[in-house]
Amino acid sequence: MDAKSRGRVRVERTAKRVRTYLGGRVVADTTSALLVWEVPYYPTYYFPQADVEESALKPTGATRHSPSRGDAVIYDVVSGASEAKDAALVYPDSPLEEIRGHVRFEWDAMDAWFEEDEEVFFHPRDPYTRVDILSSSRHVRIEVDGVTVADSRSPRLLFETGLPTRYYLPKTDVRLDLLEPTGTVTHCPYKGTAEYWSVNGTKDLAWSYRTPLPESEKIAGLIAFYDEKVDVYVDGVRQDRPKTKFA
Predict the structure, then answer these.
(1) Into which CATH architecture does domain 3-119 fall?
(2) Residue 125: how many CB atoms within 10 A of its CB?
(3) Can you give the residue ranges of every domain in the chain?
(4) Which residue, 245, 1, 13, 26, is CA-closest to 124?
(5) pLDDT of residue 1
(6) What is the pLDDT at residue 6?
(7) Using the 8-state DSSP alphabet, how is residue 227 labeled?
(8) What is the pLDDT of residues 104-139, one digit of tens each?
(9) Residue ranges for the chain with pLDDT beneath 70
């Protein structure tokens, strides 16, 4: 892959066919999409304008400035009876030459996204992120303010690029009486939709994927805790609390 960067923005071509839909119709379909890391955590798709349905872009007359990408022209996206306000951006004179002549769509404004013929949820997958889930016989114990809230000898360890090891534990090994549902929901394109619990007054300290995506089925129904905020003992050894954006 040919990767280039300007400041903190990385731009890279992907070999995947990428499509996005609105109103039940294809708005953009390309085999020449760009992956643009507008933030460090995951990329965004940019489509060549030639691969975007011309009638779908309705000028608004408004612009938006980005310190790294320059001034964007804002478009509404119209498809059939559906209209998504301010849902597309074009940077005609961007200091990032690679993104000139490309269209960026707001992910949540569109109805669906596909990589090849598989639907993708929440945001594009980062080609440099890998998730491995391994069964283990290590003894994992979780303490919150000195109280043991989980104790398991059959954890599943999730290794995700750029993040600390996450210990997913069977519910039968967790003090469920100490967990209070919060109603918080988050989404991950590698694992799926997570639900959260508070523990001892700390909100969203534990989470679980009830029905994860196929590649992460091994953690279905298991509970994990933020190692950044609890005391984790593995085979009797207390682990250092990692420093991440979740701390």
Answers:
(1) Beta Complex (2.170)
(2) 17
(3) 3-119, 131-238
(4) 13
(5) 41
(6) 46
(7) T
(8) 999 999 999 999 998 998 899 999 999 999 999 999
(9) 1-8
